[in-house]
Amino acid sequence: MVDTTPLEDWLVRLERQHPVAIDLGLERVTAVAVRLGLNAKSLAGRVITVAGTNGKGSTVAMLDALVREHGWHSAAYTSPHLQRYNERLCFDGQEVDDAALVEAFEAVEAARLADEEISLTYFEVGTLAALWLIKRQQPDIALLEVGLGGRLDAVNVVDPDVAVVTTVAQDHAAFLGTHLDTIGQEKAGIMRSKRPAVLGSAVLPASVRQHADSLEAPVFALGERFGWQDAADGWQWQGETATGEPLYLHALPDPHLPLDNAATALQALTLVGVALEETACRRAFERAILAGRLQWQGAWCLDVGHNPHAAAYMATYLSRRPLRGRRFCLLGMLADKDAKGVIEALASQIDAWVPVSLSGDRARDAEQLAALLSARDAQVMQCAASPDVGVRWLHANMDSGDEVLVCGSFWTVAEASTTLGKLGVMASPRSMS
């Protein structure tokens, strides 16, 4: 018998207790939140929620670094995780420990069963547990990454001081549909009446702005009230205070994450009352780390991107990197993702491919990916039974100067990273080299 920890026992239990894994809606989770008293007192001094198809994790990571470098205490809730569930909640950059999570799960369970029993999903319980811990900690600023939805996402039980929408693209079609205006309306559902909304992309469906206007929410949009430009000594940012006073920052270092997201983080932070200091901002961008987003382990670049929009950003980044050898892609994707679109977005930067199979109910096998690649006349070097097998095969067959992009899913990146560690290929101290 394999010994398990109390936290592992809880996570297994939570995965099994609700009839479906994803069950969008706020009625059940709100009722339990009320029982927990989460509506009775603010979670933190300030709350920023971040929604969007891509760029949420990058924005939260940079917000967290900026908050801490300015001397404020932070809580950051994100999902999903790569290696450990504890990654989902950090206080001042430190992962919450097992004992705290178990205590929070016990509190949520007691509230769930009080009076009439209410069924909750794994994500809903995890979100309520995180909010319970954040309320107990009372940080200066709480940063909450919204899950796949927006309006009906469990995180949306919280009323933010500032709502951020990063990007809107097609993903999770079974839950959000395929029409960008509809998806945008759902993401914009995190906004609140007359509270600032930060729009982190210059290309968003009209429904996002329309929803903000309907709430009379002050809109701070990239390319309008804030933005960034390249400069000889780095990049520079300009934005506005809540009252419209202009702000400027100069000679900012490359955070090795999308600068649209960096600029968005700066604008959101000004709107919760943080007086930006150039020195603190420089330190934050030098130190911000986001595991699994253009993260390098030796010659291996790991990115959890799993839709065409994210893949297009990866391709742009790779196109700017000098390359001495060949570039391979180890690709593993779930069956409900747009694999064809991801392949098309990456194809110009990849010399050869190693598709890998994933496991589980939503799995897609390597042969299905290989068929899509062959239809594009792409070179398939090997089909692998798992990311672990694919990494080991490539590690044995790549030459000095070659690079590998690992992408397509959190599961692909997590397993590949673990295998690379076992092979002695260590992660770089920054998210990218």
Indicate the CATH architecture of the largest domain. 3-Layer(aba) Sandwich
Structural class: alpha/beta
> What does the average pLDDT come to?
93
CATH topology of the largest domain: UDP-N-acetylmuramoyl-L-alanine:D-glutamate ligase
Question: Kindly, what is the distance between the CA atoms of the first and last residues, rounded to a whole number of angstroms?
Answer: 42 Å
State the helical fraction. Answer: 25-40%
Task: Output the CATH homologous superfamily of the largest domain.
Answer: Mur-like, catalytic domain
Residue fraction in strands? 15-25%
Spatially, the strands of the biggest sheet line up as 4-3-2-5-1-6-7-8
Number of strands: 16
Biggest sheet character: 8 strands, mixed
Please tell me the total number of domains: 2
Question: How many DSSP helices?
Answer: 15
The poorly predicted ranges are none
CATH class of the largest domain: Alpha Beta
Query: Given the C-alpha coordinates, what overall shape results?
Result: globular
- Using only CA atoms, what is the Rg? 21 Å
Domain Mur ligase central: 50-196
Family: Belongs to the folylpolyglutamate synthase family.
GO molecular function: ATP binding; dihydrofolate synthase activity; metal ion binding; tetrahydrofolylpolyglutamate synthase activity
Enzyme class: ligase
